[in-house]
Amino acid sequence: MFHPVELDLRAVSGQALIIETDGRTEEVVRGDVIRLRPGAKAYGRNGTPTTFLLSIPGKIHREYFGRLEVKESQGHLVPVVEMDREVAVASIAGAEMVNVPVEAMKAQAVAARSFLAGVKGRHAVEGFDFCDTTHCQYLTGHAAANSAAAKAVDLTKTLTLMHDGSFVPALYSANCGGHTHSLTEAGWNSAPYPYFGVACPIKGTQEGHGIGMCQRGAMELARCGAGYRDILAYFFPATGLVPVQVVR
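^ that's the sequence the OP posted. Answer follows.
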């Protein structure tokens, strides 16, 4: 989004952080600020994922849990964070929903997991799978272990929406305006899972594309006593929830 030409890296207290540059490695001490160059990598001891703070100086800083590699594209730096899919799901769910009913958060976690499992090669040319904007999946950093999002991910672990034997790349938007849309109604190309238009308990001004799960509608259904399975079945008809063991 920012097309940065500078990136800063910081260690987090209690977390080992190794930075590799031009074949040389050093351990970053908390408080140190490391200016990253193209080709730099960062990870925990023995190459394991770790927690770190990544900043675009003067603009934004975020905490991540994973491994970092800095690439270069058209004169700007591209930070690529490799993380476990469940870690990504928690980060996405936490960014998409705040202070919502538990069942709505669980439905969001399953939808995010399904999208990540069902979409391939979205940014293959640039050398990564997904961006962290609403173009792919909105992600603002690492979700704490005791957060509502992390708990929702744990309670729905490995559950993924499937249709006709394939993952459903589940779409969702903030507010469908009272009725979700099929792909045809939205003017989008058809797909193996067509999506369906369903009436939503929440009216108002449409925010987003209006396809798939209406987040405001999911919250209202949860407040009325619906479980996350009910919410997902409502917005994604003809799908089933399948425990997928290999989701990385």
